[in-house]
Amino acid sequence: MNGEAHTTGPDISASAPSPVTVDLLLSVNRDRHPTTVDTRETLLDTLRERLGLTGAKKGCDHGQCGACTVLVDGRRVKSCLTLTVTLDDREIVTVEGLAGEDGPHPLQTAFVEHDAFQCGYCTPGQLCSAVGMLAEAAAGWPSAVTPDVGGGTSPDEGTPSGGDVPPGDGIRLDDDEIRERMSGNLCRCGAYVNIVAAITEVAR
Amino acid sequence: MRPFAYLRPADAPSAVTASAERPNTMYLAGGTNLVDLMRLGVVSPEVLVDVSRLSADAVEEGPDGTLTIGAGVRNSDLAADPLVRRRHPMLAQSVLAGASGQIRNMATVGGNLLQRTRCSYFQDVTKPCNKRLPGTGCPAREGDHRNLAILGHSESCVATHPSDMAVALTALGAIVHVRGADGPRTVPMPGLHRLPGDEPERDTVLDPGDLITAVEVPPLPFAARSRYRKVRDRASFAFAVVSVAVALDVADGVVRDCRIALGGVAHVPWRAETAEAALRGSAATEAGFADAVDAELAAARPLPDNAFKVPLARNVLVRTLIDLAEAS
Description:
The structure holds two protein chains of two kinds.
Chain A: E1 21-28, E2 31-38, H1 43-50, E3 69-72, E4 75-78, E5 91-93, H2 106-113, H3 123-138, H4 175-181, H5 192-203
Helix pairs in contact in A: 2-5
Chain B: E1 5-7, H1 12-21, E2 25-28, H2 34-40, E3 47-50, E4 59-61, E5 67-70, H3 75-80, H4 82-87, H5 89-96, H6 101-106, H7 109-113, H8 120-123, H9 165-171, E6 175-180, E7 183-188, E8 211-217, E9 226-231, E10 242-251, E11 254-263, E12 270-271, H10 273-279, H11 286-297, H12 309-326
Parallel strand pairs in B: 1-3, 2-3
Antiparallel strand pairs in B: 4-5, 5-8, 6-7, 6-8, 9-10, 10-11, 11-12
Helix pairs in contact in B: 5-9, 10-11, 11-12
């Protein structure tokens, strides 16, 4: 889809608005899905109601709980706040797409081994979030608990000199870092201790 | 949610034109606030103009050290940017102090500046709210206002601006680039956001159809020693009760220059110009810091349930000044 979306709804000046639909090609877990969506539809609803991918869960539907977390172009996002109509040409990965041909994703294995869930409702979001989070840390992205976000700027080094924080330095993920970086994923069963342990094992 | 048409123009001028040609249009970028407000029924646009792919997604350095941040830069990219981290650590820290990893991956710089208050009455369409429906009243003054404004509020509105990033940008004196129906212009910070007065429905000085295209951060060498400190009700993923953005330049025990802004205390990111003026040229001592901060907060008019914010803001700000002075 290029430029203005192809809309099939009525004239927007009509007094009683009818649903507006858009045709687009979605890429989910490396499969292509020609899909017609209502412009109001979120990715979470499209995945669950149109594509039958019920791994991503609807918890709060307001971006606060993280149960709906999926990866878009490799980045973790909240699918409940993402309008599907914006996603043509994007690569979407859900929990159903994490496993490889030779078995579960290492994080999935670690979650099982560390008993990192109780009811399991938050787990697909925890897993997708952890996959994205590990990539962020490997890329050197700081967090709110990373000491010295400024990269060791000494007091006399205020003048711009082009010397930069090295972008490729991975962050060492201790418990505080993992907890801060995973704070967008709530677990009502309180399995946090084991979730941190599972992620720690894969981070090493 | 009310049905809406969806447009994705190829560039910023086309987006502004598309917006001007149609009634009840809103821009969509990260959507982290807008989509939620649409679901809550707080806003009901008939047209969404998607500006999330307008290639305004880079942080660029000018010859004099000015950083120009595209409006579409995601919060997480801004916080990870090496130049931002080195030159203006408080800006990176402010972004990292907000929201969650997922939301920072979605939210943009332009959208962050224009997010709406999280006052519970504004977000609840069953309640009166002068900001959402002008003239209906403000239940917050007599109701739940623990986390609302202590500075600059009016009879009609005591909401706070929720952004952390905007507090650091206000301290840094950022310049917002805007494209409107009459072409491009700039708006300085502070100056983008406005106090509520008797028009609380207007968060900013922008007109309908105005599109933020970039944010320029002028060089400020001493901001390499700066800090954003945020107090909130839980350790992560919560809005500020009080926050401070401080850059301090101390030499030989004297404050040569400083920049201070407060978050969580007003309808705008609050630039503490009174405190800054008192500090410049004064001794860098705890007593001097406390006097300057007290002068700033003399203007506070807290409500019964948020009076605690006055000493909280004072203590956080004085402590941050001391820490920065000691690091000099």
